[in-house]
Amino acid sequence: MKNFNKALNYAFLLLKYRARSKHEIVSRLKEKGYAPAIRERVVVCLEENNYIDDKKFVHLFTSHSLDKGWGPIRIDFNLKKLGISSQLRKQVLSGNFSFSDKVKEIIEEKLEYYQKVKPFASMPKIWQKIIMHLVRKGFDLALINQEIDNLGEKGFENE
Fold it and tell me: Which terminal CB of the chain, N or C, has fewer other CB atoms within 10 Å?
């Protein structure tokens, strides 16, 4: 019983800083050397009392990541590292999140930035920088080109 309470307190300490997935809690308890039976009891207790819920966690994580400017590819990769099932990842990422709006917003911000900082730079070079920035953030090249076309500019084709 003492180990269970200690493990539960440790799980609460982890949850104090940010929401966590079930997999994260289990791995951190495993790192601390808690037995599988205790880890399972802690997870069941946390789930029953709504302290952990992978579906809510994925929505929170995706929303926060989108606010940081991350695209669906990067978000999916990070959710996979956090132990979220592929089914849940696909379900949430294909849901209510508007990645095209975020791409458009980032393109407009970057265009404004480059027009101020490098007013004499060539447009193809600027577009290449913007596209590479979006790709590094985890956005799909097809979505990037679609938004560039919607803005009335010619996108770079995937070679």
Answer: C
pLDDT for the residue numbered 100: 87
Going by C-alpha positions, the residue among 80, 64, 62, 82 that lies closest to residue 72 is 62
Q: Which are the contacts of 19, defined by CB distance < 8 A and separation ≥ 6?
A: 52, 56, 57, 60, 61
**How many CB atoms neighbour CB 1 within 10 A?**
6
For residues 56 and 68, give the distance between their C-alpha atoms in angstroms, rounded to a whole number.
18
How many helices (H) does the chain have, and how many strands (E)?
9, 0
Which tens digits make up the pLDDT trace of 32-82? 999 999 999 999 999 999 999 999 999 999 999 999 999 999 999 999 999
The pTM is what?
0.82
Can you read off the two tokens belonging to residue 114? 């480059």
Q: List Cα–Cα distances, 90 to 1, 59, 66, 78, in angstroms.
A: 39, 12, 15, 13
| CA triple 21-76-82, angle to 5 deg | 25
Written as six digits, the tokens of 143 are 């979505």
